[in-house]
Design a protein that fits this description.
This protein is an alpha/beta fold and about 425 residues long. About 30% of the residues lie in helices and about 20% in strands. Strands 8, 9, 10, 11, 12, 13 and 14 form a seven-stranded mixed beta sheet that branches. A six-stranded mixed beta sheet has the order 2-3-4-1-5-6, with helices on one face. α7 runs antiparallel to α11. The longest helix is centred in the first third of the chain and has 17 residues, at about 10-25. The radius of gyration is 30 Å and the shape is elongated. The model is unreliable at about 385-410 and about 415-425 (pLDDT under 50).
């Protein structure tokens, strides 16, 4: 019997309550944090992490999925329940009387739990919608409304009524196809290239992707952010090679394009900051948060709409599919999430690398960019005037041994020669 909740800790809490029920019923059982065994029945309850691989290879007689509407992938923020459920159902294929129980307080209307509730009772499913004060007679509707922080929270958490979420696709098909066009005028490089990576552990379905990009300038003076190269190690690459090999391949692409800086998100930071410097590369980490993603998505939208982003033909179909599949979801409370519908299976790795590119450009790390950091080269300090003009007081401090001279609005500060010191430290 599969137990799965939005986190391992929540699943363990479910198992703890199952163990209490079995004890009250007088059923002998053996319980650990993630497993309950009933030897006399040949049945086990097992707690699994809410991902695509934790349960592979099992046969289930029943599946209990808890708080399904609120599952979230830790990296993308998307709800992976649809993909997980699609992989879970085959584990019951050889058990004709197997049962699936989906339990959750509602969220929006576009998750798999909401869709099942909307379908209602059929020959294959039975739906029960229970407000908190009906399911628990110690509660009242008035008390629940008083405890709720706002009307949306009351309707969702107590009245079992999902609330509308707004799902947008931020990237326009025509803009994406224009960026991929073969006749797109990409101009000439206006600065050094950088590498932007979306790393992965290589044990799940997501890919380790990277791109090489930099600013170009056309003959008419307009600038274009050009992605010269896209590459990815897909799937469970850790079963075939080590992280050092993948980093070496990334470093080879960086060297080929003359890049010495790699920007990445917070995943696999230890691998990136350990291996890449061995190849002479600097590493800059940008955390992918809701706030940073919001700004990056807006910047990527702008560059695409203005025709200032060029994408390579290599992996062109894949990057096009990922950009058009990418979604922005906003709840009534204003909470935003960004992810592909296939993000749990590695379906937005190239978009994630593009978002890191947007963050790096906004930080001024790309040469030739309107946001490029200005590097000042101040002239070497020089002494002006005669030694007799240098200030000298009894204080003996640094400011007592400098001379300030103003010419044409500029201030020059010189240092008194050591031979003119009157003793003391400097």
């Amino acid at each position: 019997i599969v137990i799965m909740s939005h986190s391992l800790a929540a699943g363990r809490d479910v198992l703890r309550r199952v163990s209490m029920m079995l004890t009250d019923l007088g059923v002998d059982h053996e319980a650990t944090a993630d497993k309950i065994a009933i030897p006399s029945r040949g049945v086990e309850f097992r707690n699994y992490a809410p991902n695509l691989v934790s349960f592979l290879g099992i046969t289930a007689v029943a599946i209990f999925l808890d708080e399904l509407a609120h599952w979230r992938d830790s990296d993308s923020g998307a709800n992976p329940s649809r993909e997980i459920l699609a992989r879970l159902l085959p584990t019951m294929a050889t058990v004709p009387e197997a049962r699936l129980l989906l339990v959750s307080s509602p969220a929006g209307f576009d998750d798999v739990h909401a869709e099942k509730v909307t379908q209602g009772d059929t020959s294959e499913q039975c739906v029960s919608v229970v407000p908190s004060w009906e399911g628990n007679p110690t509660l009242t509707e008035e008390g629940c409304r008083r405890d709720a922080t706002d009307e949306t929270a009351f309707l969702r958490e107590y009245a079992a009524q999902p609330q509308e979420t707004k799902t947008l696709k931020p990237f326009v098909r025509d803009d994406v196809e224009h960026a991929l066009a073969r006749d797109f005028d990409r101009g000439r490089p206006a600065g050094k290239r950088v590498v932007c990576a979306d790393p992965s552990s290589g044990t799940g379905g997501d890919a380790f992707a990277w791109l090489v990009a930099g600013w170009n300038q056309r003959a008419d003076g307009t600038r274009v952010l050009c992605v010269d190269w896209l590459e990815a190690e897909r799937g469970k690459w850790a079963h075939r090679k080590g992280g050092a090999e993948v980093c070496a391949a990334l470093a080879a692409d960086a060297k080929r394009f003359g890049a010495d800086l790699v920007t990445t998100d917070q995943r696999e930071t230890l691998l990136m900051t350990t291996e890449l410097p061995r190849h002479g590369l600097k590493v800059e980490v940008f955390a992918h948060t809701t706030e940073s993603k919001t700004t990056a998505v807006e910047r990527l939208q702008l560059l695409l709409s203005e025709g200032q982003l060029a994408l390579p033909q290599r992996e062109g179909n894949r990057i096009k599919k990922q950009l058009l599949d990418f979604q922005q979801t906003e709840t009534r409370t204003g909470l935003k999430r960004f992810a592909s519908r296939q993000s749990a299976a590695g379906g937005d790795d190239l978009v994630a690398a593009l978002l890191t590119l947007m963050m790096a450009d906004a930080a001024g790390l790309l040469e030739g960019s309107p946001n490029a950091r200005t590097r000042r080269k101040d002239p070497k300090p020089r002494m002006v005037g005669e030694p007799s003009q240098w200030a000298s007081t009894s204080g003996g401090g640094i400011l007592d041994r400098v001379k300030v001279e103003q010419r044409s609005g500029c201030v020059t500060i010189g240092r008194r020669p050591r031979s003119q010191f009157d003793g003391g430290s400097f």
